């Protein structure tokens, strides 16, 4: 009789942003359960190294590495085409790649923000549009979208990022309802501030949020993975974040905005504790 792991050997997950942070942790979790992997990001070498390591550890049948800058308008279609050219079918789609930019909207760079909207919203929507019809034909599929605790509240100093995550939560929950009873589930994962490269890349390493208590990416990814496997519509990762998002329902939006602004301002104590704003995967080997 086939075990669950044997059955998964016939299944493939596509993970965007698989070269770092949560995406790398998702790749490890899916590989452990026997899924074939399609890893998508810009850092080809990091993904190759991760792919080799996971193939050795778990004897996977296929690992496909796709180098793509998902801020490009054509990116989703090109990724879809590469998956087809490789003769693979995507059973699970993980829309994980994302980025933010810190600063007052009247000062931040519009081109960078348009790229973030493309990366955080348009590309995941387009990937979903492209892969969903095949899932629908098979009456089988799972989609995991990265939202955030900021999906529930305005985010001063990260206005575009926060709005993009509100979009992803709303989009996921609407799709989840539309796809009820089709065999396809859509899950939104809402992490709080976490120990990845995210804050540093957003130019927000010196904020109170980045220097407060951070979730570990392994734990966040596991929460998302388990919720996805159960077909849950929404998972807020971590008790503190669950309490924050629940209490956000009771607070006026402008009070939430003020509290978020405080978190996203410079942490005066930061210079001493974390002068370079290092994150977990900065120098670390991807196979640890
Ligand atoms: N960390 C947090 O506090 C936090 C909290 C809530 C939600 N999230 C969300 O979680 C997701 C993953 O973030 P993370 O924390 O793991 O951040 P991360 O450590 O910065 O990783 C981001 C991943 O996205 C990829 N990526 C970034 N820009 C890309 C582009 N233009 N094209 C293709 N891939 C790109 C990166 O790969 P390359 O650089 O190799 O392209 C990397 O693999 C994001 O959607 C983020 O918004 C993060």
From TrEMBL:
This is SDR family oxidoreductase. Residues 266-288 are annotated as: Disordered. Pfam families: adh_short. The keyword Zinc does not apply. The keyword Oxidoreductase applies. It comes from the Bacteria. GO terms for cellular component: membrane. Keywords: Membrane, Oxidoreductase, Transmembrane, Transmembrane helix. InterPro entries: NAD(P)-bd_dom_sf (IPR036291), Sc_DH/Rdtase_CS (IPR020904), SDR_fam (IPR002347). Belongs to the short-chain dehydrogenases/reductases (SDR) family. CDD domains: SDR_c. PANTHER family: DEHYDROGENASE/REDUCTASE SDR FAMILY MEMBER 7B, SHORT-CHAIN DEHYDROGENASE-RELATED. GO terms for molecular function: oxidoreductase activity. Coiled coil: none annotated. The chain crosses the membrane at residues 143-163.
């Amino acid at each position: 009789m086939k075990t669950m792991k044997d059955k998964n050997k016939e299944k493939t997950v596509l993970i965007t942003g698989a070269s770092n942070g949560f995406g790398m942790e998702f790749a490890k979790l899916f590989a452990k359960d026997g899924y074939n992997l399609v890893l998508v990001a810009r850092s080809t070498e990091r993904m190759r190294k991760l792919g080799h390591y996971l193939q050795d550890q778990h004897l996977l049948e296929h690992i496909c590495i796709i180098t793509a800058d998902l801020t490009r308008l054509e990116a989703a279609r090109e990724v879809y085409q590469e998956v087809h050219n490789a003769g693979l079918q995507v059973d699970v789609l993980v829309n994980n790649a994302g980025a933010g930019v810190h600063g007052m909207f009247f000062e931040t760079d519009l081109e960078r923000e348009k790229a973030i909207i493309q990366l955080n919203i348009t590309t995941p929507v387009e990937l979903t549009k492209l892969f969903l019809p095949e899932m629908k034909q098979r009456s089988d599929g799972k989609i995991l979208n990265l939202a955030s605790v900021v999906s529930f509240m305005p985010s001063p100093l990260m206005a575009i990022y926060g709005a993009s995550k509100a979009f992803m939560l709303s989009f996921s929950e609407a799709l989840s309802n539309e796809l009820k009873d089709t065999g396809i589930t859509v899950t939104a994962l809402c992490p709080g501030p976490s120990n990845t490269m995210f804050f540093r890349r957003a130019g927000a390493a010196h904020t109170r949020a980045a220097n407060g208590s951070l979730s570990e990416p392994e734990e966040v990814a596991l929460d998302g993975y388990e919720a996805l496997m159960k077909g849950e519509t929404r998972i807020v990762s971590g008790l503190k974040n669950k309490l924050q998002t629940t209490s956000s329902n009771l607070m006026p939006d402008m009070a939430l905005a003020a509290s978020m602004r405080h978190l996203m301002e410079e942490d005066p104590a930061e210079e001493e504790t974390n002068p370079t704003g290092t994150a977990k995967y900065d120098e670390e080997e991807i196979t640890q």
